[in-house]
Amino acid sequence: MINSRDIAALHPVVAARARAFLTRCEGEGIELLVTSTYRDHESQNALYAQGRTRPGKKVTNARGGQSFHNWRVAFDMVPLRHGKPVWGTTGEDGRLWQRVGAIGKAQGLEWAGDWRRFREYPHFQYSGGLSIADFQAGRSL
How many structural domains does the chain have? Predict the structure, then answer.
């Protein structure tokens, strides 16, 4: 199973945007930890099973081949405060996430913190307008 944290594992177009995002956050004094970039189908299926057939909270609605992570165009990260992950999304924590989201969007990334369904603050992606079906059909950036 592969669940990489390496920006270099992303498609080069997405990796460049991710690096610009990380650099801009660093310039604003925001430390980030990348938690996932490319995931193979097996790793994605293991995440999909969580909260369904395996213990834990549901963290994805995508099976293997149905996640932008599987196509190297998405990554997850979490901001750190004093070296600790910030998972809260209200108050001061929420303001930090909103700033991180705005920085990502300024780099041309789609931020899942804006999604109405299955809002996911750590998730950013760049698909160049392509859908999962496009990727599955062999199209690429």
Answer: 1
